[in-house]
């Protein structure tokens, strides 16, 4: 059975993303659009709009043309949207890069995306300069300043004309984030202007933002959740976005207090801190009216504990994935009694199926794989037709790899995952990638990785078979992997075993390792 939304359909936004977001910027005028939560520096809507146009002109003078790819490798700053929308105004596609990437990880994305320009910050230059070797990147720009490198401020100083670019919203790719999908290595997710612009419109009835709202942006803009919900959506609606470059609990709490933040979009580890950390007691959070969690599953009891401590009627949830631009479900904020643990109701103009292992739709209250169809479904994976076809079928249904059930009120609960990705603090960690790293260690004969629960989070645990006669400690394994991957991908636990369970085909039987872990915990 095809499940449809309870909400009226929305109009497909066939406009460039910069117009969808900043179309009313001059009307908002001097209202603060972006605020640096550390320094207090502000950009008004009028300034933000004007700066994106100057960046577009500067990029055009550099020779950036329609369809070129620009890599944006930066933490959250007030210049992030300036560069992002400036690039799309110039007709470019922006590939957003994880700020925690190593040089090798960044290099792979630059090669795969065929990026011609890299925009970063001075702190990241050692990684950036190492990563561009052997890529199409012709120049590195910095958002701040560094000797020997041109700054984004030079682009802003351009006196050239704003480029006149014809954008086809339905087909032109606006943003190219990288996702591991349901399995495997990271792939470029082609999201068109129509995809992400329309998904903002789909979110509006679920997440009702007022123009006087002040939103804290700790989730990274390079992640599609942060890009869409903390940048695109609030700037379209005239809210003020207060940015922090990284999550530090004390700085986060101080910013909530001093900037009178009204709404926080977070991931489950932040909900855990708000629910339990003693530092929360000494902070005035009376302005905070809404907390929404997404990016990873949130326990219903933890959500209730956080809401009770903060005096909120509920901590709301939302659901989606990069390949869905990203949203498909959210808990409506005007529901006086949202059910604990539910990730929300279906977005407008979105269809869903819950499909059993036999390929048939499941019955009421039964669990099945979540399939989604709607205007937010990605164009596909860059250069990976087979992976695209394996994820989006011929009828346009995107197979999420998540297992869910729906209640009588139309609320979705995500109960399990078909996919084997580990979600650590909302970041995707492919087990196969960590296994490949482990097997480069001459001291390790075989290895497998699964996600296990620890302190309310899912963390990577390695099951390791040492080489015969080799003395190896868990700390040595952890240190070896940590030196070769981004911090969020690090192995957190190690168990030594005699053999990794495998099928006759050689595929690792992770379900047996998960069963072993569950038995050990019992």
Word description of this protein:
The protein is of the alpha/beta class. The protein has a domain at 422-521: ANL, C-terminal domain (GMP Synthetase, Chain A, domain 3). It contains 16 helices and 28 strands. The strands form 6 sheets. A 9-stranded mixed β-sheet has the order 3-2-13-12-14-15-16-17-18, sandwiched between helices. The protein has a 5-stranded antiparallel β-sheet with strand order 1-19-20-22-23, with no helix packed on it. Strand 22 (398-406) and strand 23 form a beta hairpin. The longest helix is centred in the first third of the chain and has 18 residues, at 45-62. The two termini are 38 Å apart. Keywords: ATP-binding, Ligase, Nucleotide-binding. This is 4-coumarate--CoA ligase family protein. One of its GO terms (molecular function) is ATP binding. Residues 433-507 form the AMP-binding enzyme C-terminal domain. Residues 24-382 form the AMP-dependent synthetase/ligase domain.
């Amino acid at each position: 059975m095809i499940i449809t939304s309870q909400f009226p359909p929305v109009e497909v936004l066939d406009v460039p993303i910069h117009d969808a977001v900043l179309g009313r910027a001059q009307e908002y005028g001097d209202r603060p659009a972006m605020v640096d939560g550390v320094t207090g520096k502000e950009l008004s809507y009028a300034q933000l709009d004007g700066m994106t146009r100057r960046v577009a002109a500067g990029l055009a003078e550099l020779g950036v043309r329609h369809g070129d790819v620009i890599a944006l490798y930066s933490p959250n700053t007030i210049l992030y949207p300036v560069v992002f929308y400036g690039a799309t105004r110039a007709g470019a596609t922006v590939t957003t890069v994880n700020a925690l990437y190593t040089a090798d990880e960044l290099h792979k994305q630059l090669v795969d995306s065929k990026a011609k320009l890299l925009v970063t910050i001075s702190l990241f230059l050692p990684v950036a300069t190492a990563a561009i070797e052997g890529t199409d990147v012709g120049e590195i720009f910095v958002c701040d300043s560094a000797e020997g490198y041109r700054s984004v401020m030079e682009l802003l100083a351009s006196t050239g004309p704003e480029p006149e670019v014809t954008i086809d919203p339905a087909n032109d790719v606006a943003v190219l984030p990288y996702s591991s999908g349901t399995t495997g290595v990271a792939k470029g997710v082609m999201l068109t202007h129509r995809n992400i612009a329309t998904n903002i419109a789909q979110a509006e009835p679920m997440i009702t933002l007022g123009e006087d709202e002040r939103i804290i942006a700790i989730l990274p803009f390079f992640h599609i959740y942060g890009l869409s919900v903390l940048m695109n959506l609030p700037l379209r609606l005239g809210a003020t976005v207060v940015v922090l470059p990284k999550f530090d609990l004390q700085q986060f709490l101080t910013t909530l207090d001093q900037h009178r933040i009204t709404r926080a979009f977070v991931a489950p580890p932040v909900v855990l801190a708000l629910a339990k950390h003693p530092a929360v007691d000494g902070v005035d959070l009376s302005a905070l009216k809404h907390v929404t969690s997404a990016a990873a599953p949130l326990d219903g009891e933890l959500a209730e504990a956080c809401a009770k401590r903060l005096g909120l009627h509920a901590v709301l949830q939302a659901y989606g994935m990069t390949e869905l631009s990203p949203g498909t479900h959210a808990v409506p904020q005007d529901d006086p009694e949202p059910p604990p643990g539910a990730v929300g109701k279906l977005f407008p103009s979105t269809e869903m199926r819950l499909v059993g292992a036999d390929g048939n739709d499941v019955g009421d209250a039964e669990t099945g794989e979540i399939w989604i169809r709607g205007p937010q479904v990605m164009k596909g994976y860059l250069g990976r037709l087979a992976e695209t076809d394996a994820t989006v079928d011929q009828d346009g249904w995107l197979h999420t790899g998540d297992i869910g059930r729906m209640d009588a009120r139309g609320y979705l609960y995500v109960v399990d995952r078909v996919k084997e990705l580990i979600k650590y603090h909302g970041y995707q960690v492919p087990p196969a990638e960590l296994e490949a790293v482990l097997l480069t260690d001459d001291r390790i004969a075989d290895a497998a990785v699964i996600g296990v629960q620890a302190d309310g989070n899912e963390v990577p645990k390695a099951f390791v078979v040492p080489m015969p006669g080799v003395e190896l400690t868990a700390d040595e394994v952890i240190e070896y992997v940590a030196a070769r991957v981004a911090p969020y991908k690090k192995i957190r636990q190690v168990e030594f075993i005699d053999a990794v369970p495998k099928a006759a085909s050689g595929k690792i039987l992770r379900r047996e390792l998960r069963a072993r872990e569950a038995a050990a915990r019992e």
